[in-house]
Amino acid sequence: MAIPRTPASAFVARRNALAARLGSRPALLSAGLPRARNYPANRYPFRASSHFLYLVGQAYPGAALLFAGGEATLFLEPPASDDALWHGAQPSFAEIREALQLTAVKPLSDLDAILQALGGGSAVATLPTQDDPSTAWLSERLGRAIRPRSGHTLEAGSPDVALAEAMIAIRLHHDDAAIAQLRAVAEATAGAHVLGMRATHGARFEWEIAGAMIGALRRHGLDDSYSPIVTVHGEVLHNETHKNPIAAGDLLLADVGGETEEGWAADITRVWPVSGTFSTTQRELYDVVLNAQERAVSMVRKGMRYRTIHETAGRTIVEGLRDLGIFNGDVEGLYERGAAAIFFPHGIGHLLGLDVHDMEDLGDRAAYAPGRERSKRFGDCYLRLDLDLEPGMAVTIEPGFYNVPAILRDEAITGAVGKDLDRSVLERFADVRGIRIEDDVLCTEEEPEVLTRSAPKHPEQVEALVRSAAK
Amino acid sequence: MAIPRTPASAFVARRNALAARLGSRPALLSAGLPRARNYPANRYPFRASSHFLYLVGQAYPGAALLFAGGEATLFLEPPASDDALWHGAQPSFAEIREALQLTAVKPLSDLDAILQALGGGSAVATLPTQDDPSTAWLSERLGRAIRPRSGHTLEAGSPDVALAEAMIAIRLHHDDAAIAQLRAVAEATAGAHVLGMRATHGARFEWEIAGAMIGALRRHGLDDSYSPIVTVHGEVLHNETHKNPIAAGDLLLADVGGETEEGWAADITRVWPVSGTFSTTQRELYDVVLNAQERAVSMVRKGMRYRTIHETAGRTIVEGLRDLGIFNGDVEGLYERGAAAIFFPHGIGHLLGLDVHDMEDLGDRAAYAPGRERSKRFGDCYLRLDLDLEPGMAVTIEPGFYNVPAILRDEAITGAVGKDLDRSVLERFADVRGIRIEDDVLCTEEEPEVLTRSAPKHPEQVEALVRSAAK
């Protein structure tokens, strides 16, 4: 399956939309600088900042895009004299200008004088980039302190806030080209999960399955949109080591997502039994999570407050666990006393786009509506999104069940539920450490579009795929 | 194949060797800080600095190892309160101290006071780490400017130079545990190349083969020791995009190497015909490179100057091309006029260890013997190593042939050879853009040990592997 390329016209439309919101205020968006791995010349694969990629679609290291007087000018490092040998013939600035339909492409060495002519750096809005050196570079260009890692604490009333708000307004609602990217990467990532299920039989360590899945992404030209989680210890939420041995009785949790060359992300979690057959207890809890997940997915629609989906999923899980005898009492009372977060201690999901947590570089500014703030309550405090959904927004839906010793030992979390948590019943489910089921969902004018629908999640389908390799 | 773990005793021996060379001078070695990818919380997989990994074997983000008074103390960030939930139960400092056989493990917050007690940062030697933020962190701890990316320009006579020289002296000669790592990662990487050959039939884009090879590394729990090169445009030396379509008549060049969890690197290049059969012209040039490569490999022995191997490979290539009619004249005369670099414009190889270009963070200090300097001549200027080889040193041997338009157009490079380069004969070989054959070789007391010998390079073997998938 080929990943589509976004036509230049879509980038033009995005730049025009931003320019219209900026008015006469100039703005500078930086791609960021390459980051070294073990020594300066051995670098991580360069990932440009998402704001830059959204408007340009190409990851030019060290580049910057300037909006001024209704024109978009790209500033690039000219090729070094030996680039042709080491990196191949590079397109000329004129060719790049033409391909990307920009007003102009100029050498980075011209940038400082042009910023001066615009009234200096204090007249030019910007956004902090992904790391300290890139942000320091911006500070130097603009002659004012850009605070790194502080998008959510931009000084009120500064031009940077207006730029942030403009970017958020545009990036929240995915255009057709963005949706095409999200669909393609979701589909390819779903395929990687199928291959992971098929690679499980005979594997002895997590990394064998992780390798099959990562290889499947790379075979489509996709990078990882985040560090892949492939583990039999799903109760460790961000378990990225792939080191554990796996045993026939284990559940394997894979939270793996691809990223297109233009930067668009997928984010899928699936869980499957290593043996190819869920135990009775594994199946019971899997069904609790799947039921909550499908209900939550069906709620993704225009006007729905995302927090309501989160809360409904929590209540659905509490109800399922109550029906299994893990909780006693009425669902609402249990929920109010924090029962959901004991086993589902994170948010139901997040925005998805160019960043897997889209625009998290701007803190909660993009994902929390004005006047809404993070809850202080355990579990709910990890909810990354509290908007009323609108068509064009893409979100993940990812409830889970985790048996986390540190939580179960913590009286501050479990105390209010007390004896209504039946630990002897819970012990019967000891072969479940972590389950999470996660899809990427596009809010539309009508039914939600599940972008990741070709990743099987119904237990019989999952079992059949795992078993298919054993034959 | 399982990658071995280095026993704690080997790290103790390395730390003792360093402490003995340091004498009473204290030294601080930092692991470095995690680097953000697209936003601060979405990070690249953490890779600790190689000096730190050499002595500790574990990649603790932000950690530092202090040598003082004959004792080695590890300073670590204590786990955050919610680490158990997101990253799993962490070993206690006492457990880490025991497992790594360190004198002590202490929280990072204790470090500044301890440095003060040692006489302040000017009394403590250090080495710049891999990027600016990590180096800025060091500067702050030591109260003096540590210049990033400047290992090769350390101030003469400073304590940092003595530390660099001590690390180089130890790391140049691989101990048994290091050799075990290098053997294992070479073997697994060789397997990835075999899978790449087998994945070629039916592939339409470079990324399909790259994906098979990267997946094969991950299946052994290996990371990439550098950005993989998998391309039908081998004439672009660092072609890391994997974007090109591939055609039956192409040669595919794969320069791909794994890295163990402890950080040890492999670096293998193989070239194979996409169709499964070399054309006559491809085979002729392949044999020229292979002949030079095998001759160079056989020269890796105690006391041999590495530059001599480089020059011999260059002369061998010139001779082979002369025999094919691409050059006219006597080999020595052609070589003196720069004929080798027209088609083989890089060095014959480099040191290999924890870094794929081992200790390149220290510039040429590790790899060039005192009094030896980089040549100014095109081609030779890229030679990364000029030592007399000693047992325990690992190097790559990687001659090549490239048809680079930018070089062939460049009168400054080709002028001295002039008409003795027969461009009409060269045109007959137009179906060869780039060939490189690269092995990892350990210098021993006797015969060189080719660590990567299980990656086939003889043309019939390579053809058979590519064809085997077509059946």
Task: Describe the model.
Two copies of one chain form a homodimer. By secondary structure, chain A is of the alpha+beta class. Chain A has two domains: 8-171, Creatinase/prolidase N-terminal domain (Creatine Amidinohydrolase, Chain A, domain 1, 3-Layer(aba) Sandwich); 176-468, Creatine Amidinohydrolase, CATH 3.90.230.10. Chain A has helices spanning 8-22, 50-56, 83-87, 93-100, 111-117, 132-142, 159-171, 176-198, 206-218, 280-298, 306-323, 331-336, 339-343, 405-408, 411-414, 423-428, 459-468, and strands at 27-30, 36-39, 42-43, 64-68, 71-76, 104-107, 125-126, 223-224, 229-231, 251-256, 258-259, 268-273, 394-397, 400-402, 434-436, 439-442, 449-450. In chain A, strands 6-5-4-1-7 form a five-stranded mixed β-sheet. Chain A has a three-stranded antiparallel β-sheet with strand order 9-10-12. In chain A, helix 8 (176-198) runs antiparallel to helix 9 and helix 10 (280-298) packs antiparallel against helix 11 (306-323). The first copy, chain A, is globular and about 75 Å long.
